[in-house]
Amino acid sequence: MQEFRSSVAPALPKLPKSPTGIEGLDEITEGGLPLGRPTLICGSAGCGKTLMGIEFLVRGIQDYNEPGVLMAFEETAPELAANVASLGFDLVELQARKMLRVDHVHVDRSEIEETGEYDLEGLFIRLGHAIDSIGAKRVVLDTIEALFSGFPNQGVLRSEIRRLFHWLKGKGVTTIITAERGDGTLTRQGLEEYVSDCVILLDNRVIDQITTRRLRIVKYRGSTHGTNEYPYLITEDGISVLPVTSLQLDHPVSDNIMASGVPALDEMFGRRGFYQGTSVLITGTAGTAKTTLAAAFAEKVCQQGQRCLLFAFEESPQQLLRNMRSVGIDLQQHVAAGLLRIEASRPTINGLEQHLVTLHRLVKDFKPAAVVIDPITNLISVGNAAEVRSMLTRLIDFLKVNGITAFFTALVSGRGLQQEMTDEGVSSLVDTWISVRDLEGIGERNRGLSILKSRGMAHSNQVREFIVTEHGIELLDVVVGPTGIVTGASRLTQQMQQHAQTLAAQQETDRRDRELERRRRVLEANIANLRTEFESVEEELRQIYSDEQNRQQTLTSGNQRIAAANPPARATPAPAETK
Amino acid sequence: MEPQLDSDDAPEEHSGPEYLLHLYITGATPNSTRAVRNIKEICEQFLKGRYELLIVDVYQQPELAHEMDLIGVPTLIKRRPGLVRRLVGDFSNRERC
Fold it and tell me: Residue A530 to residues A488, A520, A523, A533, A544: CA-CA distances in angstroms?
C-alpha cells in the first residue's frame, strides 16, 4: 500500500515502534504501536477491542517471534480460545509452545472484602511472573476497568493503575490495554487515556441500519499518525484496517494499452484501447448492454493471461455466466482457469466501508490486472451520494496506486439532459468515459455508444450504433443520412437506398463503358480503312517515283550515247528533246 | 481459580484446627508488615488456639499469585470454616474477620 514518503531525511532517531501485524494498522500508525509503552484501545461493546488485542499478540508471535501475555479480566482462557478459533488463532497451541500465556484474573466483588490498606502488587507479581517465564515482549490487559467493579477503593485503584503503566514501561513490554468507552470520555474511568502513550478509538456506528466500524488514533505521543477515521473490518483473517485517504497523487503511470474487448471500440480510441491503470466508466440507461461491455472487457483481460476481478452487485455469478454465454462471451473457462474471479454480493449486505475493505482485501489477495464493478450505482442504496462519492474516490485512488485498470458501469436514470450526469459525480475522477444510450427513433429503440472523454489520447467523436450479437458486441459502420446519423430500421432503409443507388450508378457506368467500346471499335475500323487507303496511295506514289527514275536513267544513257557520236560543242539541243 | 467450595476441604475437616488462614504478603512492604502484625493480633485475640495461620511471601513464589488468583495484596484467604473468603487489606479496619 501507500508508503509514507518524506523528502526530508530523518535527522533524529525516530520513535521505535512495534509492528502490530494487523493489516493496515501499521500504515496508519506509521510503523506500529510505541515500542515498550502502553497503548489504550477503547470503544463500546462489540467493537473488537479484545480481538484487536489478541491479534496483536498472535501476529507478534507468528510474524515477529515475540512472545506475549494476555491478562484477561472478563473472559476465561478457554472462552477466549474458543472465540478466536474462528479467526484461525490457535491460542491453546501457542500456549503449549510457551509463546503465549493467558492469565484470567477473576474479580468478584462478593468474594472480596476490604479490611484496610492494600495495593495491587498481586497483579504485578502475576504479570511479572508471566512475562518473565516466557520472555514476553507484548502484553495485553483486557479491560482493566473490571478491577473497578471488584475493588471499591477508587483512590487506591487509580494510583495503582498509574503505577502499573509505569511499571510496564519499566519492563519494556509493548502493552495494549482495552477499555470500555464512557459517556463523553474515552474511557469510563477517565484515567487510562492519560497514562497511555497511544490511544486508539474504535467505533461502531449505525447509519441507516447499516453498521460501520471505524478506527481513529486519538493520540500518539512522539509520532505523527493518520488522523482520520478509518473503516475496519473483522474478517475471517482477523482485523483489517484501510488507510483509505493516503493518496498523494504521485502514483506511477503506465504507457501500456489495454484493449476493451470490442475491436471496433478500440478503433475509436487514438491508441486502440485504454491506458493500463486508468479508470473507465460506462454510463447508460437500463438495458444498454453495460454489463455486456464490462464482460467483454473482462474476457479480453483474461484472454491476455491477466487476472480480472469482477464485482457483480446485480447478478449472481451463475446468472452472469449464463447471460454472457448467450452473447458469445465465455467467462466460464476463465473462471475455471482461475483468471477471473466473480464476487457477487448485494450492496446492502454491508456498509460502504465494508465493501471497500472487502475490495481492498480481494485485490490484495487476488492481485488482478483489472477490476470490474457492475454497477457502482447500486452502492448508492447503501449510503448517501456524498459517501458513495468519497468511497469511490478512495477506491479509484487505491486501484490507480496499484496500477490496476478499473472498469465501472453506472446506471443513469434520467433521460435527456440528465443522461450525462452520474449520480455519484465520479465522472471527473475517471479517465475514460464511455456513454451508451438508447437512440429511440420511430417505433424502435437502438443502442448508441460514444466516448465522452478519454484522457491522454485522441478519440472518435461519433455516436456509433452497436448491436449485441451471438458473437458479442458489434459496432456498426456509421451511416449518415440526410438528417444525420441514422440507426435501426431507417439505417437499413438508408442502406437499401444506397445499395439501389450504387446499383443504378453501376449500370450506368457499364452502359457508358459499352458505348465507348463500340465507338472505339468503329474508330478503329475507320483507322484501318484509312491506313489501307494510305498504303495504296503510297504504293502508287512509289510506283510513279520509280518509273520517273527509270525514265531519267534511260534519258541520261541515251544522251551519253549521242554525245559520244557528236562533238561536244554541238550537244546543246539535247534537253529539248526529252519530251 | 474459581472459588473453592467447602466441600473440597470437607474430608480434612478434623485434620487441623478450626480456622485455616493463609495470608499472602509481598515482602516487607508497609502494608504487608502491618497486615502480619494485625492478623496475628486479631487471631490471638479472637481465635486463640483454634487457628492455623500460614504466611506466604508471594515474591518468593510468584506462581502462587496466579494459582491463588491474587490481585490486591495483602490478602487473607480463609479456607476453613465455611465458604472460602478473601479479605484484602492490612486489617487496619477491623470491622470483621
Answer: 62, 15, 10, 5, 21
Report if residue A376 sits inside a domain.
Answer: yes
N-term to C-term CA, chain A:
125
CA-CA distance, A442 to A481, in Å (whole number)? 15
Domain presence at residue B51: yes
Question: Measured between CB atoms, which of B1, B62, B91 is closest to A125?
Answer: B62
Under 8 Å CB pairs connecting chains A and B tally to 105
| Same domain flag for A499 and A464 | no
What type of residue sits at position A342?
I
Tally of structural domains, chain B: 1
Residue B19 lies in a domain: no
CA distance B11 to chain A (A): 23
Nearest CA among B88, B41, B6 for reference residue A110: B88
Pull the grid cell for residue A62: 507468528
Pairing of strands A174-180, A198-207: unpaired
Note whether residue B13 is domain-resident.
no
B27/A138: higher pLDDT: A138
Give me the domain span that covers residue A359. 257-475
Total structural domains within chain A: 3
In a domain? residue A167: yes
Are A119 and B96 within 8 A, CB to CB? no
Q: Three-state SS across A448-472?
A: EEEEEEECCCCECCCCEEEEEECCE
Least CA distance to B60: which residue of chain A?
Answer: A125
Which pLDDT band holds residue B7 (cuts at 50, 70, 90)?
A: very low
Pairing mode, if any, of strands A340-344 and A370-374?
Answer: unpaired
Set of chain A residues whose Cβ sits within 8 Å of the Cβ of B97: 115
Q: Are residues A47 and A138 in the same domain?
A: yes
User: Within its chain, how far is the Cα of B50 from the centroid?
Assistant: 14
Q: A358-400: per-residue pLDDT in tens?
A: 888 888 888 999 999 888 877 777 767 777 777 788 788 888 8
CA A464/CA A81 separation, integer angstroms: 62
Whether A492 maps to a domain, the answer reads: yes
Asked if residue A285 and residue A237 are part of one domain, the reply reads no
Task: Let me know whether A287 and A151 are in one domain.
Answer: no
Out of B2, B66, B91, the one facing A126 most closely (by C-beta) is B66
Residue-wise burial string across A490-500, b where 16 or more C-beta atoms lie within 10 A, e elsewhere = bbeebeeeeee
- Convert the pLDDT of each residue in A299-355 to its tens digit: 999 999 999 999 888 889 999 999 999 988 889 999 999 999 998 888 777 777 778
What is the predicted ipTM?
Answer: 0.81
Q: How far apart are the first and last CA of chain B?
A: 23
Alpha-carbon torsion angle A71, B54, B94, A107, nearest 10: 20
| Average pLDDT of the residues in A511-515 | 95
**Chain A residues close to B93, C-beta within 8 Å:** 114-116
Tell me which of A475, A490, A516 is where a domain ends: A475
Q: What is the DSSP letter of A24?
A: T
Domain carrying residue B42: 28-88
Residue A51 and residue A33 share a domain = yes
In a domain, residue A540? The reply is: no
- Assigned domain for B63 exists: yes
